From TrEMBL, chain A:
It comes from Actinacidiphila acidipaludis. PANTHER family: OXIDOREDUCTASE WITH IRON-SULFUR SUBUNIT, OXIDOREDUCTASE, IRON-SULPHUR BINDING SUBUNIT-RELATED-RELATED. The keyword Iron applies. Keywords: Iron, Metal-binding, Oxidoreductase. InterPro entries: 2Fe-2S-bd, 2Fe-2S-bd_dom_sf, 2Fe-2S_ferredoxin-like_sf, 2Fe-2S_ferredoxin-type, 2Fe2S_fd_BS, Aldehyde_Oxdr_Iron-Sulfur, Beta-grasp_dom_sf. PROSITE patterns: 2FE2S_FER_1 (PS00197), 2FE2S_FER_2 (PS51085). Residues 16-92 form the 2Fe-2S ferredoxin-type domain. It comes from the Bacteria. The lineage of its organism: Bacteria, Bacillati, Actinomycetota, Actinomycetes, Kitasatosporales. This is (2Fe-2S)-binding protein. The keyword RNA-binding does not apply.
Automatic annotation (TrEMBL), chain B:
This is Xanthine dehydrogenase family protein molybdopterin-binding subunit. It comes from Actinacidiphila acidipaludis. Pfam families: Ald_Xan_dh_C, MoCoBD_1, MoCoBD_2. InterPro entries: Ald_Oxase/Xan_DH_a/b, Ald_Oxase/Xan_DH_a/b_sf, Ald_Oxase/xanthine_DH-like, AldOxase/xan_DH_MoCoBD1, AldOxase/xan_DH_MoCoBD2, AldOxase/xan_DH_Mopterin-bd_sf. The keyword Signal does not apply. Residues 24-133 form the Aldehyde oxidase/xanthine dehydrogenase a/b hammerhead domain. SUPFAM superfamilies: CO dehydrogenase molybdoprotein N-domain-like (SSF54665), Molybdenum cofactor-binding domain (SSF56003). The keyword Lyase does not apply. Keywords: Molybdenum, Oxidoreductase. It comes from the Bacteria.
Length: 183, 735
C-alpha cells in the first residue's frame, strides 16, 4: 500500500498586504502569501497577457520586467514585488498602435498560437536593453529561455534583428522600453 | 465546383488577422476567462501504476482552508462515456470506480476558493492503493493486443516470394520512444452552468465533438452545451479528445454551483491529454541491383492504453509511399498500463515514415546508390494500391528542386567523407507524404448592410493560421478585401466543423466557407431576381461573379451592383446563407485524393570527439497544393521542422519501468528544442492546385514534422558511419 499525503495546514496562512505597481499604476492587494506574481497579474488584476506555460520556471511564457530586468513571474512571489516597478505586455502598444517589437513580431510572423508571444516580446525587450541582441546567434542564445512549441524561433530572431540596433549589442535606444521599465 | 477565376498557386503572405490581438496579449485563451464567484479545481493523481484504490480519505482536504468540494469516485456519481469518434472511443468517464489503470490517473479533484488553496487541499487527499504489477512493456505477454486496429493493413502481391528472390534485402528494426505534445498553453477548462446549459471555455481542437461528448457525459441535449474556444494555446493533437479533466471541471461546477477553472499543471500535461506512443518497427525491403523495389514489408507495434483507443496508423505509410508490386503492412497495438496515447503532430505517419525512410537510406548504401536516385526511381506516379491517378502530386519535383536548392550534388557518398572546421558533416534526406483526410463541414456566410462580411464555422484556431486563411478564402469567394471579412471560429453554436487535425481544417472549413459564400451570392441574385431597379435582374448565381464588393455580370462586367446597394434597396440589415462541403470519394473523383508530399534535406555537424550533434541546415520542399497564405504556410512548415528536430534529437518521455511513473514530466527535464537549437530553415513550395478540393488546398499542418527524424538519422550516418536505429539520437550513442 502506498500513501499519498501531506500533513495539512489547519489554518490559512496569514494574508499579506502590499502594493503592486504595474505599468505605472498602483494596485493594493491583500492576499495569500503564496500567491505568485504571475497569478497576481493574471488572476487578481486581470492582466491576462502574461501567460502560464509551466508554473515552474522552465518556459518563459510568464516573463515580465521587474525594475527593468526580465524575471519569471511564476517563480516570483507577488509579495516580494511590493512597490517595485513591474512592466507587462499590456504596458506596450495597443492593437491600433503596436510597439515596434510587437509590429516586428507581426510582420515576421514570429508566433503561431500566440501563447508564448507576450513572454517572447518581454524577453526581446529585455535582451535589447541588456545589449544581448547584437547578432542572430546571440539572440538565439539569449532567447533560449523562452520556449515556443509552435516553433516560430527563426521568425522571432528575424523580428528582433529588425528592431535591434546594429551596435552596442543591439541596444536600440529609439525603441521605447516597457512603462515602468528601467529603474 | 468553383466558378471563380483561379488565383495564383501561392497566395499573398498577408499578416495574421489575429496577429494584433496575439502580440498585445489580448487574445483570450481558455485560462484567461474568469467569472464572478469562480472557484479553482486541482487534480489528484494516482501514485500506483495499476491496481485498486483501497481507501480514499478526504477529511483533511475538506477541512483545508477555502475548500468548497472534494470529488472522488465515492461521490462523483455516474457519468456516461462520450461518443464513438473517427479517432476511436471517447476517453472513459472519470471517477467511476476504484480501478487504477495507470500511474497518474485522476483519482480526485479538490475545489477551493483560490488556486493556492485548491493545490493545498489536493495534497491533503490521502489515497491508499492495492498495487498490481503494471504491464508496461510492448512485448509483455500479459498485454492485450489489437491487430489491424484501423483496418489499414495492406496486402499487395506476394511479399514472401518477392523478398526471397530479391537481389538486395534490408531487414532492420527501429525503435521510437514516447513523446509528449506539450503545447505551451496548459489545457484548461472553465466550466459554468447557466440553468440547464453548460458553458465551457476549453482548450480544444474540436468544439463540435466537445459539445457532443459533454452532453453524453451529463445526459443533456447537445444544444445545452456551449463550447467556446476562440483561441487555443497550441495543441499538436492534445486538444483532439474530450479528456477526463474537462468532464470533471463541468461536474465540479455542477456540484458547487459555481464557475470552476481547472488548468492542468505542466506535469499533468504528461498524463492527462495524450502523447505519441513508443513503438518498434521492423522494415524489410527487397530490391533489384538497379534499385527497383520488389518487396516492402513493414510491421509496427505501438503502445495503447488499457481502456482507451488512439489513432496511430504507422506501418500503413508504406502502402502508398513507393511504387512497389508486393507490399505487406501490419499495425499492432499492445494495451499497457500507460496514460492513453493520442495523436501528436503527424500521428503514425511521423513514426512510420521514420522507419521506412531510414530503411530506404540503408538500401541505398547496400546498393551503392545515391539515396535521392533510389527515391526517384521508385516514385509512386499513381496511387499504388488502386492505380488511380493522384489528385495532385509533385513529389519528384520536391525531391529534385530540393536537391538543387540544398546543393545535394556536393555530397560525397562515403560516410565520414565530409568535414569542415574539424566537425564531421553529414547530408541526409527523406521523402515524405501525408495521408489525405477530410470530413464533412458546414459554414455560414453573412453580408451586412455596410458591405462587410462575417463567415463562421466551429473549427478552431490553434496557431495554424485558420482565421487568416479562412478570411482570405472567404474574401476571394465574395469579391471583398480581406479587411472587410471577419471569420468566426471556436464556438460549438456555429455550424458544425470537424477537428483541427489530420491536416484537414483548411480543406474542410475552406470548402464549406466557399460553398456558403457561393450560396450567399445565389441569395443575392434571388433577392434581385424580379427587382426592376437592379441591373442584375434575372441573373442566376452562375451569371454573376463577385468583385470589389459587388456582383457583376460575367457576360458584361460593366454591369454590376454592390451588396450594399442591394441590401439598402431591399431594407435588409444583412443577408446570410449556409454552405456545406462533403468530400468526394476516390470513386466519385476518379482519382486518389492526395495529401501533401515533400522532401526534407538536412545537414548535420557532429563533433568527432564529443559526439555532439547539431542540425546546421534544414530544407523542406512541400507540395501542399494551393498555398493560400505564403507567410503562415511557411510558419506551419518551419514549426513542424522544429518539432521534427525535437523528435530526432531531444524528446523522450522517460518512465519508471516498475510503475510507469513519468520521471521527466517538466519542460526542464523533457527536452524540447529552444531557439539556440534551431538552425536557419528554408521552405519552398512546389506543385499545383489540388483537384480533389474546391479550394485547391492540401493540408500542411503535419507534413512539416514528418521526415525530419529520418533525414537527421541518415545525415548522422553519413557524417559518422554510425547507423543509429532508435530515437532520439543522442551524443552518447555516437561515442
Ligand atoms: S510559466 Fe513561468 S517559466 Fe513557465
Ligand atoms: S506561438 Fe505557440 S508556443 Fe509560441
Amino acid at each position: 500500500m502506498t500513501l499519498q499525503a501531506k500533513p495539512h495546514a489547519e489554518e490559512s496562512l496569514p494574508q499579506t498586504e502590499f502594493t503592486l505597481r504595474v505599468n505605472g499604476r498602483d494596485h493594493p492587494l491583500r492576499t495569500d502569501a503564496r500567491l505568485t506574481l504571475l497569478d497576481a497579474l493574471h488572476d487578481r488584476l486581470g492582466l491576462t497577457g502574461t501567460k502560464k506555460g509551466c508554473d515552474q520556471g522552465t518556459c518563459g511564457a510568464c516573463t515580465v520586467h521587474v525594475d527593468g530586468r526580465r524575471v519569471l513571474s511564476c517563480l516570483t512571489l507577488a509579495a516580494q514585488c511590493d512597490e517595485r516597478e513591474i512592466a507587462t505586455v499590456e504596458g506596450l502598444g495597443t492593437e491600433d498602435e503596436l510597439h515596434p517589437v510587437q509590429r516586428a513580431f507581426l510582420e515576421h510572423d514570429a508566433f503561431q498560437c500566440g501563447y508564448c508571444t507576450p513572454g517572447q516580446i518581454m524577453s526581446a525587450l529585455g535582451l535589447m536593453a541588456e545589449g544581448r541582441a547584437g547578432s542572430p546567434d546571440e539572440i538565439r542564445e539569449y532567447m533560449s529561455g523562452n520556449i515556443c512549441r509552435c516553433g516560430a524561433y527563426q521568425n522571432i530572431v528575424a523580428a528582433i534583428r529588425d528592431v535591434a540596433g546594429t551596435e552596442d549589442g543591439g541596444r536600440a535606444d529609439d525603441v521605447p522600453q516597457a512603462e515602468g521599465g528601467r529603474p | 465546383m468553383t466558378t471563380i477565376s483561379r488565383p495564383r498557386l501561392i497566395g499573398p503572405g498577408i499578416n495574421r488577422v489575429d496577429g494584433p490581438l496575439k502580440v498585445t496579449g489580448r487574445a483570450p485563451y481558455p485560462n484567461d476567462f474568469a467569472y464572478p464567484g469562480m472557484v479553482h479545481a486541482v487534480l489528484v493523481r494516482s501514485t500506483a501504476g495499476a491496481g485498486r484504490i483501497t481507501e480514499i480519505d478526504t477529511t483533511a482536504a475538506e477541512r483545508s482552508p477555502g475548500v468548497v468540494s472534494v470529488l472522488t469516485h465515492l461521490n462523483a456519481g455516474p457519468l456516461a462515456r462520450g461518443p464513438m469518434t473517427p479517432l476511436g472511443v471517447s476517453p472513459p468517464a472519470p471517477l467511476q470506480d476504484d480501478a487504477i489503470l495507470h500511474y497518474g490517473q485522476i483519482v480526485a479533484v479538490a475545489v477551493a476558493e483560490t488556486f493556492e488553496e485548491a493545490t493545498e487541499a489536493a495534497y491533503a487527499v490521502r489515497v491508499g492503493y492495492a498495487d498490481e504489477p503494471a504491464v508496461l512493456d510492448l512485448d509483455d505477454p500479459r498485454a492485450k493486443v489489437r491487430t489491424n486496429p484501423w483496418g489499414r493493413d495492406a496486402d499487395r502481391g506476394d511479399v514472401p516470394v518477392a523478398l526471397a528472390g530479391a537481389e538486395v534485402v534490408v531487414d532492420e528494426t527501429y525503435l521510437t520512444v514516447d513523446n509528449t505534445n506539450n503545447p505551451m498553453g496548459p489545457l484548461t477548462t472553465v466550466a459554468r452552468w447557466e440553468g440547464d446549459t453548460l458553458v465551457v471555455n476549453n482548450s480544444t481542437q474540436w468544439a463540435s465533438l466537445e459539445g457532443a461528448a459533454l452532453a453524453a457525459a451529463f445526459g443533456i441535449p447537445e444544444e445545452s452545451v456551449h463550447v467556446v474556444a476562440p483561441y487555443v494555446g497550441g495543441g499538436f493533437g492534445a486538444g483532439l479528445r474530450v479528456w477526463q479533466h474537462v468532464v470533471l471541471a463541468a461536474l465540479a461546477a455542477r456540484v458547487t454551483g459555481r464557475p470552476v477553472k481547472l488548468v492542468l499543471t505542466r506535469p499533468q500535461m504528461f498524463t492527462a491529454c495524450g502523447h505519441r506512443p513508443k513503438g518498434r518497427q521492423r522494415v524489410r525491403l527487397g530490391a533489384t541491383r538497379e534499385g527497383a523495389l520488389v518487396a516492402v514489408q513493414h510491421e509496427a507495434r505501438t503502445a495503447s492504453a488499457v481502456d482507451d483507443d488512439n489513432f496511430e496508423p504507422t506501418a500503413s505509410v508504406s502502402a502508398t509511399a513507393y511504387a512497389c508490386p508486393n507490399v505487406i503492412t501490419r499495425d499492432v497495438q499492445a494495451r499497457l498500463n500507460v496514460p492513453v496515447p493520442n495523436s501528436m503532430r503527424g500521428p503514425g505517419t511521423a513514426t512510420g515514415n521514420y522507419a521506412l525512410e531510414c530503411a530506404m537510406d540503408e538500401l541505398a548504401y547496400r546498393l551503392g546508390m545515391d539515396p535521392l536516385e533510389l527515391r526517384l526511381r521508385n516514385d509512386a506516379a499513381v496511387h499504388p494500391p488502386t492505380g488511380l491517378p493522384w489528385s495532385s502530386r509533385a513529389h519528384k519535383e520536391c525531391l529534385e528542386r530540393g536537391a538543387e536548392l540544398f546543393g545535394w550534388s556536393r555530397r560525397t557518398h562515403e560516410p565520414r567523407s565530409m568535414r569542415e572546421d574539424g566537425l564531421l558533416v553529414g547530408y541526409g534526406l527523406a521523402a515524405v507524404g501525408y495521408p489525405w483526410f477530410r470530413a464533412r463541414c458546414s459554414a455560414r456566410a453573412t453580408i451586412r448592410r455596410d458591405g462587410t462580411a462575417y463567415v463562421c464555422s466551429a473549427g478552431t484556431e490553434i496557431g495554424n493560421g485558420a482565421y487568416t486563411v479562412l478570411v482570405q478564402l472567404s474574401a476571394e469567394a465574395l469579391g471583398l478585401d480581406p479587411g472587410q471579412v471577419t471569420f468566426g471560429l471556436g464556438d460549438s453554436t456555429m455550424p458544425m466543423a470537424p477537428q483541427t487535425g489530420g491536416s484537414s481544417l483548411t480543406g474542410a472549413v475552406g470548402s464549406a466557407a466557399h460553398e456558403a459564400c457561393r450560396a450567399l451570392v445565389g441569395a443575392f441574385t434571388d433577392l434581385v431576381a424580379d427587382d426592376g431597379d437592379s441591373p442584375l435582374r434575372g441573373c442566376t448565381a452562375d451569371d454573376v461573379e463577385p468583385a470589389d464588393g459587388a456582383l457583376r455580370r460575367r457576360d458584361d462586367p460593366a454591369v454590376h451592383e454592390s451588396y450594399r446597394d442591394i441590401l439598402a434597396r431591399h431594407h435588409r440589415p444583412d443577408l446570410s446563407a449556409d454552405g456545406e462541403s462533403t468530400p468526394l470519394t476516390a470513386d466519385e473523383l476518379g482519382m486518389a485524393p492526395a495529401g501533401a508530399f515533400g522532401a526534407k534535406y538536412v545537414e548535420v555537424r557532429v563533433d568527432p570527439d564529443l559526439g555532439r550533434i547539431r542540425v546546421a541546415r534544414a530544407l523542406s520542399v512541400i507540395d501542399g497544393g494551393r498555398i493560400v497564405n505564403e507567410k503562415t504556410a511557411r510558419s506551419q512548415i518551419i514549426g513542424g521542422t522544429v518539432g521534427g528536430i525535437g523528435m530526432a534529437l531531444f524528446e523522450e518521455t522517460v518512465s519508471d519501468p516498475g510503475s510507469g511513473r513519468i520521471a521527466n514530466a517538466t519542460l526542464g527535464d523533457y527536452i524540447v528544442p529552444v531557439n539556440a537549437d534551431i538552425p536557419d530553415m528554408q521552405v519552398e513550395f512546389a506543385g499545383s492546385w489540388d483537384r480533389a478540393n474546391p479550394v485547391g488546398t492540401k493540408g500542411i499542418g503535419e507534413i512539416g514534422l514528418v521526415g525530419l527524424a529520418p533525414a537527421i538519422a541518415n545525415a548522422v550516418f553519413h557524417a559518422t558511419g554510425r547507423r543509429i536505429r532508435s530515437l532520439p539520437i543522442t551524443l552518447d550513442q555516437l561515442l
